[in-house]
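FORM 7B: Structural annotation worksheet

SECTION A. Query
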Amino acid sequence: MERARVLIVDDDASIRETLELHFRGAGHEVATASSAEEALARLATADPMLVITDVRMGGMDGIALLETMRARRPDVDVVVITAFEDMRTAIGAMKAGAYDYLVKPLDLDRIDFVVERCVRDQRLRRRATQLAADAAEPYALSQLVGRDARMIEIYKTIGAVARTRTPVLIRGETGTGKEVIARAIHFNSADAAEPFVAVNCTSIPEPLLESELFGHVRGSFTGAAGDRKGRFELAGRGTIFLDEIGDTSPAFQAKLLRVLQEREFHPVGGERVRRTEARVVAATHRPLERMVREGAFREDLYFRLRVVEIVVPPLRERRGDIALLAEHLLREGAREMHVTAPVLAPDAVARLTSYDWPGNVRELENALTRALVLGRGSTVTAGDLALGQEGAAEGTGSSETPADDQSLAAMERAHIVRVLQRARGNKRQACRVLRISRPRLDRLLEKHGIR
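SECTION B. Predicted structure
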C-alpha cells in the first residue's frame, strides 16, 4: 500500500501512542497533536494526507476542527472517531465533510481499511484532476494566441462570462476559432469538470436535429428502437455549443427558445418534461440582424442568445498576430508529430502576413501542417507554403513530376503513399494535407490496397 502522511488528534495520550505505533509499523509517516488548536498549528509542517481526530476534546472539538480543515485544506481527508455513538454526531460529521466516522474502541483492521481506501481515493482524485487539467489546457486563456487589441478584449470577455452561466453568442467568419473561444469559456468556468458538448447544426439533417439535442423515446419515429438521451441532457451542468445556429429552421428555433426561457424540454415522442442546467453558447457566421429583418431568424431567440456577444475578427484584420499564431501552430503540430518544430524564415513570415486568409486560422493551420509534413529542413521557407489554390492542387508543392502516361488512379495512389510516408503514418496529419476526411482516407487506402 502507498505510504500515507497521517495526523492523529486526540487528548487521550494512550490513544495517540497506540495509533502512532500502529501506523509507523505499517510504514506510514505519523504526526500527533493533543488538541485541535495544536493540530492546526502543525498543519504546515506535518502536511498530512489524512487527519484522524477525536470529537470531544478540551477547547475546539473535532467537528469544528473538521469544518476548519475543509475550509483551509480541502485536499486533506478527515476521519472522525468518538466514544459516543449517536445519530446526531454521525450525521453532523458526515454533513461537515468527514471522510469516515469510527466508534471507539477502535478496530485497527477497520482503520487500516479506511486509510487504504483514503489513499486510493486521493490517488484517483489527483489523476482525475490532472486529466481535467490536460483537457482544459489547450483552451486555457494563455493558449488563445494574439496581441491584437480586439483579441485582448475577447480575452477579458471570456474571463468575465466564465464566472456566470449567461448565454453567449460568438460571431465571426468561418475558421476564426469560434469553438476554441467557446471551449475557453467552458474550461475557465466553475463547471469545467462538467461536459462540453459541441453540435454543428449544419451537419445534422433538420428532421434529426431535435432528436439529437433533446433525445427521443422508443417508438417515437421509424428507427427509434429505444430511449436515447439528447445532447442537452448529456451536457448536465456543462456547456452545449451550438455551432452555425443561423442555419437552423424557424420551427427548431421556436423549440430552442423554450429551452432558453423555461430551462426544460420534451424528448421527441415523450410526455415527461426534462430539465436542463447547461449553459448555451451559440456561434454563427451569418448576418443575424438581416435574417431577423427578413424573417429567417426569430428576433426573440436572437436577443436570448445575444446576452453577451463576442465578435471574432478575421485573420486579415489582425495581421500583426499572424507570425505569432503561425509559430504557435508549428509548435503544436510538431508536438503532435513528435518532431522538432522548424523555424519560420523571414520570407515565409512575409508571405504569411501578406496573404488574405479567406479560411482564417483554420486555413493557416492547414497550410502550416502541410509545410510541416512535406518540408525537409529545420526551417519553413516561403517555398514550403502552398496557399490558396496552390494548396488545393493535387501536387501540394511536391517537386516530383508524374510520367505523362501514368494513369490518374496511379497518380492518386502514389500521392497518398508519399503523404503518408512523410506524415510517418499519421493518418490525421495526412488528412489535413490531403484536405479529406478520415473515412474518405480509409476508403482510398482500401481502394488502392495501401497497407
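SECTION C. Observations
The longest strand covers residues 77-82. The chain has three domains: 5-134, 140-313, 316-448.

SECTION D. Sign-off
Analyst initials: ____
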